[in-house]
Amino acid sequence: PHPQQPLKNSTKVGICSSVLGEEWTADVVKSIDALVGSCVVLPCTVSHPGTYLSTSRLRGIWHRKDKWEEFFYHDDSTKILDSFKGRTRLLGNLGQNNCTLEIVDVKDHDNGPFCFRIELVRKDTDQPSKEKFSFVEKCADITMIHDKPQLNLSPIKTATQGKPYTLTCSVHHTCPSHPPQIKWNRERKDDNITEVHKHIHSGIWEAESILSFVPEEKDDESELTCTATFSAGIKYEAKFTLNVKRQQNYNHIIIPAVAVTATAVIFGLFCVLMVKKYNMWNRMSRLSLLQK
Fold this sequence. Notes:
Strand order of the largest sheet: 6-5-9-10
Order of helices and strands: EEEEEEEEEEEEEEEEEEEEH
Oligomer: single chain
Low-confidence stretches: 1-21
Strand content: 35-45%
Structural class: mainly beta
CATH architecture of the largest domain: Sandwich
Number of strands: 20
Distance between the termini: 146 Å
Mean pLDDT: 81
């Protein structure tokens, strides 16, 4: 097949002839959601037969599926479609088989399909050779999201005065290079805030902020708010009213009980002393009578 024909698997064409006919392959995320105004990453890996090829020998291009010369990304920025100029870049290193594409400031029309093409570059001229492989049967579609993303607060439970309390705010996103920033409406001196970033699955990440503090009586019925700020300044909030259970105060029982016990002990000691004193007086009186 001709190198510029749609290829599911590149076979024995140009670059592959020197490596015993093995195939070039690419894996691209098939579909992904993106928040309009934010950014999105299209995960992509490419593999080639034979020995290692440096990034300088390879050129990665992203183009339309039906119009191969309309470029979403090209290392020559003058060739990129005007509507995508300044908004796309390769995150990966082609020499390490990473062809991941990032799109920032996502627009309504950024729905693709986005197809990846790789070209072998000549060593002497740094110009592309005839060996070009487009993987048009493995293109990515983007579904635009206009609704606000779901912020999750957990666990929602009653706090206890004087005991450590933890609340987690999390949100999914599609851009690890510009993750949403999560802030709380309370950041007191003794509060502890931990940020965690997780890769959930292909093209989806999670930003998480964990707030830990010791509630006081004055925190009862207070409102806790976490705000996630996405790229382009888009903000979303989640709120929670904190209920603080007061610790039982047994002083009104303990103090009187201690006082009564102490009084009883003192009174008992006094009685013992009085009895001893009476017995001593009684013995002395008897001795006096006998002497007479």
